[in-house]
Amino acid sequence: MEEEDDVMVKEGLMASQREIFSISGPIHLTSIDWNNSYHRTSVASCLVQAVYTLERDRQQNRIGLKSQANHWWEFFNFTLAETLIDDSDGSIYGAVFEYKHFFSYNYHNTHHSKPPPRHVIAFRGTIMKRHSRSRDLKLDLRCVRDCLQDSTRFVHAIQVIQSAVAKTGNAAVWLAGHSLGGAVALLAGKIMTRSGFPLESYLFNPPFSSIPIEKLVKSEKLKNGVRFAGSLVKAGVAIAVKGRHHNRGQEDDSFMKLASWIPYLYVNPSDPICSEYIGYFKHRNKMFEIGAGKIERIATRNSLRSLLSGGGGGGGSSSDSCSSEPLHLLPSAYMTINTSHSPNFKRAHGIHQWWDPMFNGEYVLHQF
């Protein structure tokens, strides 16, 4: 029977279990406490799953009662306000969700409570199906090369975000994204913060565009040695380049502007795509502890690749947009690490882990 089900899923005759909310969603969350970080995380991650399912509904031509996506937002009292479509392949890459009860929410005597968002703008990651695979993989490559900002998908996404903020203000808008979508949300969050509009952001397994030392190197001593050497080299090159680039101070200010923005960052140590964020912040803390803070202050806001290519690392632009600021240079974050065992890459990188009530989390606030 299971084999028959697999064939039917492949042929688009039915949805996979992971797409069906009543089977895979957090159906125990019948009432949302917006002060509860697990509840907010569950809502944000489910709305990202809604975008994945919207695109799978489109690909498999599931309409009407066969469609599965609406359950992922209706359960939490959201409506679908806008569907974001990539003009290159016609795929659905994001969506704007609106909270139904925003205007009836009781804001009185809630000085210490968090209000719900009016809008959540969510972005999916890569879907390895023929209708979307080619475009998504090209954008994944752009993430690695740090030039996602020039893609038509990202340009469209930032326009939608700016429009929502212009209408309702930044306090009422959340960003959420997973994997490639996490990269879109992270980059958009940086741009909006530098413009003076920081947004509450939920970044699930965003790619770290550098070698995943955390996953590749087992010895803590060797990890520390590699990272320490890397910081020395980056700081040295940055100081050498500084004399040739007069806008360096402005770039440093640009990096510091981000320090007040504290996105919620979700990573799994078994996921090579995002695990290096753990080492990135751990190393930064260690450098300050051992008295090498001055070196690390320079190193943490720079990437060797962008320095050598002339793009700088602190937010400046260059004629070659692919040598602009690396995505992972992040001053502050509230990081959730999933310490539960992940049997394979699919589970370690998947979105479903973030609303699993059984997952073990380690929570660390990093502020620059």
From TrEMBL:
Superkingdom in the source lineage: Eukaryota
Q: Which UniProt keywords apply?
A: Hydrolase
Please state every residue range assigned to the domain named Fungal lipase-type. 159-197
Q: Which Pfam families match?
A: Lipase_3
Protein name per the record? GDSL esterase/lipase At4g10955
Q: What is the lineage of its organism?
A: Eukaryota, Viridiplantae, Streptophyta, Embryophyta, Tracheophyta
